[in-house]
Amino acid sequence: MTSPTTPPDGEPALVEPDPSRGDAATDTGERPAPPPRVEAARSERSPKDMAISLLVLLVPIALLLAFYRGFLGGDQASTVDPAPAIEQARSANVFPVSQPQGLGSDWRTVSARYQSVEGGANLRIGYLTPEGRGVQLVQSSVPAERLLPAELTDQSQPQGPTELAGRTWQRYSARGNQQALVLLEPTRTVLIVGDARDNELRELAAALR
């Protein structure tokens, strides 16, 4: 029997493996874990698939929008009855109150309010003209030197007179692309101001009774 080799001082003894014991992995029946399988990368969606998905989303939206506009009148401005505000102004008896007579049905009243303010009171009625532009009719007992700068601009100046239904109105410039017609009377000032064309402003002014 071969004796183990004696190592030099300070070194561990070398022990030869015993062939009779066999491989530890073989004795226990264990096998090395198989390498992890590489998961196949997902293929990106093609432009055609994306376009189809987008179309599926847009078609119901388009149908709802068409229904809202065609059947529910989604593009039409909400109209109001100006009669309560006009009656309130007349009951207050602060200034004489006029209202348009004979305007076509394509003139729509979109706002109406009577309000006491510092220095007087205002009756303000908003219209949408047949061309779809906005106009305000303002009747007020506030002194004109205060009212005009507030409703128009500090730089607004009369641009010349115009005769409408027996009354002399003054044309004024206003904010941005707006223009105005102003009627000065002893107890009230009447303004018609908006981005409507001159013929529509004149039509509203001539209809006041």
List strands and helices in order, with pairings.
Blueprint: H1 24-28, H2 47-70, H3 83-92, E1 108-117, E2 120-128, E3 134-140, H4 144-151, E4 158-164, E5 167-173, E6 179-184, E7 189-194, H5 198-207
Antiparallel strand pairs: 1-2, 2-3, 3-7, 4-5, 5-6, 6-7
Terminal CA distance = 138 Å
What sequence of helices (H) and strands (E) makes up the elements? HHHEEEHEEEEH
Quick one: overall form? elongated
H/I helix tally: 5
CATH fold group of the domain at 83-207: Phosphorylase Kinase, domain 1
The CATH homology group name of the domain at 83-207: MucB/RseB, C-terminal domain
* Percentage of residues in strands: 15-25%
CATH class of the domain at 83-207: Alpha Beta
Structural class: alpha+beta
Mean pLDDT: 83
Give a short overview.
The protein is an alpha+beta fold.
Polypeptide structure, described:
The protein has 209 residues and is an alpha+beta fold. The protein has a domain at 83-207: MucB/RseB, C-terminal domain (Phosphorylase Kinase, domain 1, 2-Layer Sandwich), CATH 3.30.200.100. It contains five helices and seven strands. It has a seven-stranded antiparallel beta sheet, covered by helices on one side. β2 (120-128) and β3 (134-140) form a beta hairpin. The N and C termini lie far apart (138 Å).
List keywords for this structure.
209 residues, alpha+beta, Phosphorylase Kinase, domain 1, seven-stranded antiparallel beta sheet, 5 helices, 7 strands
